[in-house]
Each structure stands twice: as C-alpha cells, then as structure tokens.
Amino acid sequence: MTLSDFIEANLDGLIHEWTEYARAVSPANNRLSEEELRNAARELLTGIAADMRGAQSLAQQLAKSQGKSPDGNSAFSRVGRGHADDRQSQGFDISGLVAEFRALRASVLRRWRQTPQLDAAAFEEMMRFNEAVDQMIAESVDQFAKRTERIRDLFAGVLAHDLRSPVGAILHSTYVLLRDENLSPASMRAGANIQRSADRVKIMIDDLF
C-alpha cells in the first residue's frame, strides 16, 4: 500500500487525531466547530494524497524543495491558500497555522510507521509526503503573509484618511490662534507646540499614502 493510499484508507482516524490537536491550538475566543475542523483536515489530507499520486519530474521536485509552487492555480495550491484564508479569518496567528501542519505530518507518519508492510519504497513515499506537506505549508504561509499585508495597508489607508481632516483643522486653528496679538507668552508657546506636533502627525499621514 502506498502512503497516499494509506492516508485515504485511514482518513477517519487521521482526521480525528488531527482535530483534537487543532482544537487545542485554536484561539480561545474563537473555537472552531467539529464540522469546521473535520472538513479542514479532510481537505488537507486528500489534497496531499492527490498530489503524491501525480507524476513529478526532478525539476518539479527541486522547485518544491525550494518552496516554489509548480502551478499556483492547481487544486493543491488552492487548498493551501484557502486554508490560510480560513485560519486568518478565524483569528489564528501564523505560528498556529504552521503548528496544524506539524501535527498533521506527525499523525500520518506515526501511523504509517506502525504498518507491517513497509519496504524499501516506503522511504521514497515518506520523502514525497514531506515534500507535499512542505509545499502546502509554503502556499499557506505565503498567502497568510500576503493577506496580512493587504489588511495592514487597508487599515493604514483608512486611518490616514480619517485623521487627515482633524489634523488639518488643528493646524488651521493654531494658525489663527497664533496670529492673535492678545495671547499671553505661555499661550503662544502652547499654540506653537500644538502646531509642531500637528505638523509631525501630518507628515506621518502623508507617508502612509
């Protein structure tokens, strides 16, 4: 039995074992349901098993070892990216995402080593499995990082837009106040400090665009 066949033959047990771990590392304020966890495990395991069955050239193997996706539009790549999107929306950090894959790898290999019919080809099977898991991790981490950057840029843009008007009002008001000849020296100094601070904030806002 190949390792990919073994994964599919033992899918329910592997899903159960991984689900227990994934539940433990999920954010405390956003526990995933049993169905969500089981569906995620099934999609990852069947995606990895399908990738292992596919033909692979030496060039493709090398690309995987370097974290490069042979086909960014393949079903395999979409599974990795989709899992990253799901976990990010559910409040996971990137270490929790990687920990799930680590547990998935350990569960499969631990059960695989217990099978009595391992032969010389088993080593090649394990290499192919590890390549698939590593590639899935690379797809997921890359997607997680890109989505985090997009969210950060969006937040910065919204923040800068919302701050521009009040900072402009502060600058205009201090300009008017500082032209008042009846201000005391202390008030003049306070107004000048406000103006300098608002100018610095405006420069930071401009840098965000």
3D architecture notes:
The chain has 209 residues and is mainly α. Helices cover 80% and strands 0% of the residues. α2 (11-25) packs across α3 (34-53), α2 (11-25) packs antiparallel against α6 (94-113) and α6 runs antiparallel to α7 (121-178). The radius of gyration is 27 Å and the shape is elongated. The mean pLDDT is 84.
Features:
single chain; 209 residues; mainly alpha; 8 helices
Mean residue pLDDT: 84
The shape, in one word, is elongated
**Individual helix count:** 8
Content-based structural category: mainly alpha
Order of H and E elements: HHHHHHHH
Whole-Å distance between the termini?
A: 57 Å
Helix content: over 70%
Q: Radius of gyration over alpha carbons?
A: 27 Å
Largest sheet: none
Q: Bin the strand percentage.
A: under 5%
Low-confidence spans: pLDDT under 50, at least 5 residues? none
* Count of extended strands: 0
Task: Spell out the blueprint of helices and strands.
Blueprint: H1 3-9, H2 11-25, H3 34-53, H4 58-65, H5 75-89, H6 94-113, H7 121-178, H8 185-208
Helix pairs in contact: 1-3, 2-3, 2-6, 3-5, 3-7, 5-7, 6-7, 7-8
